[in-house]
Amino acid sequence: MTREQIELGNVTPHNVKLLRHLNNVIFPVSYNESFYKEVLKVGELAKLVYYKDVVVGAVCCRIDTSNGARQLYIMTLGCLYPYRRLGIGTRMIQHVLKLAETDGDFDSIYLHVQVNNNEAITFYKKFGFEITAVRRHYYKRIDPSDAYVLQKLISHKRTANEGHKTKENKKKF
Amino acid sequence: MPSSNPLPPKENALFKRILRCYEQKQYKNGLKFAKQILSNSKFMEHGETLAMKGLTLNCLGRKEEAYEYVRRGLRNDLRSHVCWHVYGLLQRSDKKYDEAIKCYRNALKWEKDNIQILRDLSLLQIQMRDLEGYRDTRYQLLMLRPTQRASWIGYAMSFHLLGDYKSALNILETFLDQQQKGNNYDYEHSELLLYQNMVIYESGDLKQALMHLESCEDQILDKLTLKEILGELNLQLKQFEKAAKYFEELIRRNPENTTYYSKLIQARELTKPEDIVQFYLSLADMYPKANPPKRLPLNYAVEEQFRNLIDNYLRQGLRKGVPPLFVDIRSVYTDKRKVEIIEQLLLQYTDALKKIGKFSENEVNNGPKEPASCLLWVYYFLAQHYDYLQQTEKALMYIDAAIEHTPTLIELFVTKGRIYKHAGDPYEACKWLDEAQSLDTADRYINSKCAKYMLRANRVKQAEEICAKFTREGVSAMENLNEMQCMWFQTECALAYQRLEKYGEALKKCHEVDRHFSEIIEDQFDFHTYCMRKMTLRSYVGLLRLEDVLRGHPFYFKAARCAIEVYLHLFDEPLKDENTEQELNMENLAPSELKKLRNKQRKARRKAEQENAQAAQAQVKREQYHKSKQQGDIEADAPQLDELVPEKLAKVDDPLEQAIKFLQPLQNLAQNRIETHLMAFEIYYRKEKILLMLQSLKRAHRLDAANPKLHTCLVRFCRVLNQNKDGLDPIVKEVIEQEKVLLFNNKDAIQLNRDYLDTYCNSLEAVLEGAKMLYYLNPKLQSTALGLVTNLDNKYQDVNIKVCKNVLRSLKKGDFGQCDSQIEEFMTRCQTLFLHAVDFRSSSSTSVCESNHVPPDQDNYSSN
Ligand SMILES: CC(C)(COP(=O)(O)OP(=O)(O)OC[C@H]1O[C@@H](n2cnc3c(N)ncnc32)[C@H](O)[C@@H]1OP(=O)(O)O)[C@@H](O)C(=O)NCCC(=O)NCCS
């Protein structure tokens, strides 16, 4: 399996419905209109993944500044079942890590997973994420309803004298 | 010959300025100068000035005034070549070419050596294909301008087009001899030599053509064409070794061109399938990246060898994920054995991929797994495979499996729609195409396909809206599509309207398509000068020949057939006057119902008024748009054709004459299609033109004597003859007697029909026509006739949706008299045979289906 077969592409108003199709089959929860409106505006934070020219996965993130820190929150990251364990997840998470790194102004990356989602937990751990909290009844309509918070701290947040560069980069997303 | 009314120097100078302004498109200034002359009372009626004023006005779009001035000018100076020339130009701008030619000829009477007029005349002559006239004019031009290259070429070409190759070649040779010999040959010289070679080739002297080309090889810059012609000439001259060399070289240049391979096979004189397969295999080794040497042997190989080759070919395509793999392979499906082999392989792939991720379970231990998308492409292929074999349920099963596997592959939804289309449900089909379209709204191909499916489901408005995503903004999509000559769309629209019984609308679309063909022929005009100047003579001759057969294009056929069918229908059942119709109905109504009806009518009227208002608004916009366009492009102000108004078109007085207009090009250019002659028969049958009916029948008979539709024509013709036995002109009678032997074997209608039913008793399509005629000839035999077409037992080998639909249509049309209960039974029977076909559902369930246009349920393909 060569890496060239896996490529990232943009989410656009023309193909956003593909993202819906993906999310509908990959995730047990369904996302509302505002989710799909938002992903059209976040640029590099939302990406489709192509495997041999077919869309098979997607990642959507958001910048979260709610609790005093600047965090990159992964809303969804998933891949169609027949295409798992081929490095597609890796490609997506690498994209996210790189974004965080080039931005240089994030404290951490985090996400929620259902507590029984062992595949995802193994997957994220492999990329340095750790379980930092449990959120009871995080999910409303699915069972189990508890979620772990998986988090990865960004090791080398840039120092102040590099600040101007940061601003430039931020504009991109 | 000078004008009969010469101007003094001052006015003459002004006149010259008018001419210059005209050439430089400074029309307003031109009018100013004209005014200066004409306001002088001495020259108020000066012919040439008046004419030029008219011509200038024409360029500003003031057509009526233009004619007025030009004609007045001409009346005042009938012996002025300027006036005649101007009148010709005016007519030409209105596409009245015959009239324009007459004017130019008059102009030349008074000034026979005027180069400009001669040139203009020659253009019209070639446009109108007055080849002899063209030759004479080109001769005069050559005499007047013997040093110009174009004079020689034009003169030579006139002979070429007339088929006088010898004269054409003499002229070309004389011209080339005068050319200075040097070694700075340019592209134009090279093209001229290739043109010369074309003329030699067409004269039939292949040897000479080969010698000619070999002798000037190094002067020809288009090396590709050079090699292609050299290869072809050697091949036709049976100099196989030399030919083979050229085609080997050509394959090396472009190993994707399939014709080179078949030429090389001819050159190597390979005829046995084994040898041909071997040939391709060796080339596949030489060009491992090329497709033809892998694909083409599949047409020749059989059994085990075929299995091995197709196995490899399929695996490669599935691995790569080549979407059109099935379409690429489809042509071998004519061979049943090959279909079996392909099916076996694909089922094997499915199992093995599911179990171990390989194409075969024997390969457990060797090599890496196949890509994860392989199974998807296998499902996709199988869905198309079973669809092709009309096994709808299996096709649906596999396409659903594919969608479950990868719900993001847009092609899957297109295929699902296509399966429903083939299964007879255009509404469901349309729904899936709409889904496909919504997944990538930037894909124009899918967008067009979706529009087409909407039209097949008779949803014209929706189709237009979908197309609007890609048409220009600010104009209605319908209008923009017309402007872009988007003929597939317009023809499908016409067919939808025909099904919806909106005959006027249907005709409008058909006429629009017809006009596109006229426009394309008009557009030729610019090339007469352009090609001559650019020396692209071979393409030019190719263009002229294409234009000559333009309406032979299938697009024209389809639109013309629709128009003819509609006109025939309008002849058989002219549109009734709506008011009298309603009066009649009202007489039989109870008061309460009458009230309801009145209410309904009122609403309908209000709606119609609103629609009219909207239409009027749209019309205003349209006119503004056209105006703005005209101002931008004054030169191209084509004459405004009559607007096509659906209501008027549907209320046609002479439907058969109109139908003939659409028919005539087909009779010239589509004489190999039997439908042409069958349609001709239907028209002349209604016009009661016995000899023309006979002519159509003879032509159809020659193409396919067993054609079912032809049979009904023959039977009806037989009966017409019988009925007119005594009234016929003796000469006509004699002609018919002669032809009867060929057409009917001297049988009478009843015998003819009986024999036909006997001979083709295995074909429902044929029996349908025979049974129709059974009832037609003797209504007492209704139940026999009905029995023949409604008992779908296994004696018929062609019980498919299409034929059954034709049976149903015929039953409903009354071809078998009153038969409501049989219709119902027949529909029920067909419904069990064709589960998805909407035509056999009772009318209540279809209407549900039609309105049931909702996007597909998302739960349908949630997986794992
Ligand atoms: C989690 C997920 C995105 C992983 O995607 P993927 O394309 O299969 O991941 P990769 O192939 O890149 O796997 C990278 C590594 O993660 C680990 N991993 C991934 N899935 C695993 C599994 N099911 N079991 C064990 N390890 C696993 C492995 O170490 C793997 O490396 P390897 O294949 O070389 O052993 C995918 O399983 C998924 O889409 N799940 C459903 C959606 C979801 O739960 N998303 C998380 C919430 S946002």
How do the helices and strands line up, and which of them pair or pack?
The complex is a heterodimer of chains A (173) and B (864).
Chain A: E1 6-10, H1 16-26, H2 33-39, E2 46-51, E3 54-64, E4 71-79, H3 88-103, E5 108-114, H4 118-126, E6 130-135, E7 147-153, H5 163-170
Parallel strand pairs in A: 4-5
Antiparallel strand pairs in A: 1-2, 2-3, 3-4, 5-7, 6-7
Chain B: H1 9-23, H2 27-38, H3 47-59, H4 63-76, H5 81-93, H6 97-110, H7 115-127, H8 131-144, H9 149-162, H10 165-178, H11 187-203, H12 206-215, H13 223-236, H14 240-253, H15 258-267, H16 273-286, H17 292-295, H18 303-320, H19 325-329, H20 336-356, H21 374-388, H22 392-405, H23 410-422, H24 426-439, H25 444-456, H26 460-467, H27 477-483, H28 487-499, H29 503-523, H30 525-534, H31 537-548, H32 554-572, H33 578-587, H34 591-632, H35 646-650, H36 655-669, H37 674-687, H38 690-703, H39 708-723, H40 730-744, H41 749-759, H42 764-777, H43 782-790, H44 801-813, H45 820-833, H46 843-851
Helix pairs in contact in B: 1-2, 1-3, 2-3, 3-4, 3-5, 4-5, 5-6, 6-7, 7-8, 8-9, 9-10, 10-11, 11-12, 12-13, 13-14, 14-15, 18-20, 20-21, 21-22, 21-23, 22-23, 23-24, 24-25, 25-26, 25-28, 28-29, 28-32, 29-32, 32-36, 32-37, 36-37, 37-38, 37-39, 38-39, 38-40, 39-41, 39-42, 41-42, 42-43, 42-44, ...
Domain N-acetyltransferase (chain A): 6-155
GO molecular function, one term (chain A): protein N-terminal-methionine acetyltransferase activity
Protein name (chain A): N-terminal methionine N(alpha)-acetyltransferase NatE
Report on this structure.
- The complex is a heterodimer of chains A (173) and B (864).
- Chain A is of the alpha+beta class.
- Chain A is built from five helices and seven strands; from the N terminus they run βααβββαβαββα.
- Chain A has helices spanning 16-26, 33-39, 88-103, 118-126, 163-170, and strands at 6-10, 46-51, 54-64, 71-79, 108-114, 130-135, 147-153.
- A seven-stranded mixed sheet of chain A has the order 1-2-3-4-5-7-6, sandwiched between helices.
- By secondary structure, chain B is mostly helical.
- Among the domains of chain B are: 9-185, Serine Threonine Protein Phosphatase 5, Tetratricopeptide repeat (Alpha Horseshoe), CATH 1.25.40; 485-574 and 643-670, no CATH class; 760-833, no CATH class.
- The radius of gyration of chain B is 34 Å and the shape is globular.
- The A-B interface holds A 1, 5, 12-15, 17-18, 20-22, 24-25, 51-56, 80-83, 86 and B 320-321, 368, 371-373, 375-376, 405-409, 438-442, 858, 861-864.
- The complex binds coenzyme A.
- Coenzyme A binds next to β4, α3, β5 and α4 of chain A.
- Chain A: One of its GO terms (molecular function) is protein N-terminal-methionine acetyltransferase activity.
